[in-house]
Write a structure and sequence with these properties.
The protein is mainly alpha-helical. Helix content is 43%, strand content 5%.
């Protein structure tokens, strides 16, 4: 409180601030230590001090190593507190993120990267309320800094937003659609629409309604299962189901099609998701790879395509479920019936068979994982590929992964 009061003292502060850079680093260090305090008043005081120091001149910093650690801790806490039930904590955290984005030491780009992280500080999925708040904060940053520049990179933000359309929470999906519309107004159709090609027909219909000025809040008249790939054929060739995993990490241990059949989760679909009502053209297109074939209007033909041919999918050799290659790592570690037989390498972040884990980690020959906004990691060839949905399509469809039996 004393430091905050002195910072706001227009008549002259009693604080010794001969070196503004050292003072800035010291305050950021103190805030990083107290901002996550369980006592809300302590956290609020930290936020107030943070808002007081950020607009001030920071001076010329020598090495940023120390302050970068403080910034990362503060941003991680802020991205969690913007979804807090305490209104004052929530609103002050939102203000602090905007101020940090305007600070030349922190930068807007750093704030954006913190907001589009897909896990919390304890590596758990982001709660729905916090995710909505993150999307709203991204909206504020785009309103201030626009998008498609060094401050707010275009592809990572759009890719993050499109992933949230898969959320099982309606508020997250609504916020995502609103952000897509906002981005479209800034960059225009020509730049945005190519990135929307991989969406399911039902999702695209909702977005089209808003992009075309449908007006009013987005209303989802038909809710579909968010975690199921529609195919009535299992890996053994009989009628059944295969599941699509919720969005997660990008890499994973290889496991091509044709693996031994396991007990895939059996859930009766409410209806074929491959055909949107009244959308004959859309029903001819594979929602994953974008292949257009009139034969797909027969759902059995589309099921066969998903089971055997679609280059964006693979069959898990452990459980026989058909999953997206982009989500294969997440499937092996979190959703597979045999997930207990896999372990996550701390170096490459890929799923490794538990029996090989000791040797794998001791050899340290795997590629070090890169941030999602820098590169995806293909779980089949274990190589880094361009980031985002565009990167996956380029690698799996345009170029063809050498370890993908569906294209090799």
């Amino acid at each position: 409180k004393f430091i905050e009061k002195e910072l706001k003292n227009t008549r002259g502060s009693s604080l010794k601030m001969d070196d503004p850079a050292d003072f800035f680093v010291a305050v950021m260090g103190a805030v990083s230590y107290t901002i996550n305090d369980k006592i809300s008043q302590v956290a609020l005081s930290s936020l107030s001090l943070l808002q007081a120091i950020l607009p001030r001149p920071t001076g010329k910093l020598g090495s940023k190593t120390e302050v970068n650690g403080y910034i990362d801790t503060i941003l991680t806490t802020l991205t969690e507190k913007i979804g807090d039930n305490n209104v004052r904590l929530r609103e002050n955290s939102e203000k602090a993120i905007l101020l940090m984005a305007k600070n030349p030491v922190v930068t807007c780009n750093t704030c954006v990267q913190a907001l589009i992280r897909t896990t919390t500080s304890n590596k758990k999925p982001i709660p729905f309320k916090q995710m909505v708040a993150r999307i709203h904060s991204l909206s504020e940053l785009i309103r201030t800094f626009r998008i498609g520049n060094n401050d707010v990179p275009f592809n990572p933000v759009v890719d993050f937003t499109l992933k949230q359309l898969e959320s099982s929470n309606e508020e997250v999906r609504k916020a995502s659609i609103a952000l897509i519309v906002q981005i479209n107004k800034v960059v225009g159709d020509a730049k945005l629409r190519p990135l929307l090609q991989g969406l399911r027909p039902a999702q695209m219909e909702l977005i089209e309604k808003e992009l075309d000025g449908g007006g009013g809040p987005v209303r989802e008249e038909q809710k579909e299962p968010e975690t199921v790939v529609t195919t009535n054929i299992n890996a053994g060739g009989a009628k059944g189901k295969a599941s699509k995993q919720a969005p997660g990490g990008g890499g994973g241990a290889g496991g091509g099609p044709g693996g031994k059949a396991g007990a895939a989760e059996e859930k009766e679909p409410k209806g074929p998701r491959t055909k949107a009502p009244g959308k004959d053209e859309a029903s001819k297109i594979c929602e994953f790879c974008g292949k257009n074939d009139k034969k797909f209007m027969d759902s059995d033909n589309l099921d066969m395509h998903l089971w055997r041919e679609c280059p964006m999918l693979t069959t898990c050799s452990l459980c026989a479920q058909v999953v997206e290659i982009a989500e294969f790592n997440h499937h092996l570690l979190e959703e597979c019936d045999k997930k207990k037989t896999m372990k996550k390498c701390p170096r490459c972040k890929e799923a490794v068979p538990a029996k090989d884990f000791k040797q794998h980690t001791e050899e340290m020959s795997c590629l070090i994982a890169k941030p999602e906004n820098v590169a995806n990691r293909c779980p089949l060839c274990h190589q880094d590929i361009p980031p985002g949905l565009i990167g996956w399509k380029q690698h799996l469809i345009s170029e063809g992964c050498p370890n993908n039996e569906r294209t090799a």
